[in-house]
Amino acid sequence: MPRAMAEEQRDALGMLTQTLAQLTERMGALEAWEREWVEIEREWLELEHERLELERRRATMEERRTADMDHISMVMQRQFVEGSSTGMTQKEIAAVEQEAEKGADGDDEDGMVDAEGEED
């Protein structure tokens, strides 16, 4: 019987040795998997950071666009209000004022000498 016990112990030791080798191999594979997982998470975090930066830039551009649209609206409204009593835009009012100034100066732009003796 001692021989049978010795063979059982030897077989058990062989199985333990084989299991230990498999365990070592699996632990190595698990460590490689964990390193790969950490790399994937790092890449994901970088992409998430880039996404957030792009979202911040988009929001900034949207704010600028909104401010520009508000400014344009205000300018257009001001032009309408200033010209609403006459039905003219601010540019038309400015053109009429310029024409009035020219008329007040007596300029007829023909190169002739005006009433004051000055040449146009």
Describe this structure in words.
This protein is mainly alpha-helical. It has one domain. The protein is built from 2 helices and no strands. Helix 1 (about 1-85) runs parallel beside helix 2. The longest helix is centred in the middle third of the chain and has 83 residues, at about 1-85. The chain is rod-shaped. The N and C termini lie far apart (about 135 Å).
Helix content: over 70%
Largest sheet: none
Q: Give the C-alpha Rg.
A: 45 Å
Number of domains as seen in the coordinates: 1
Mean pLDDT: 83
Element string (H = helix, E = strand): HH
Taking the alpha carbons of the first and last residues, their distance comes to 137 Å
- Structural class of the secondary elements? mainly alpha
Indicate the low-confidence ranges by residue numbers. Answer: none
Q: Supply the number of helical segments.
A: 2
* Global geometry: rod-shaped
- By DSSP, the count of extended strands is 0
Question: Which band does the percent of strand residues land in?
Answer: under 5%
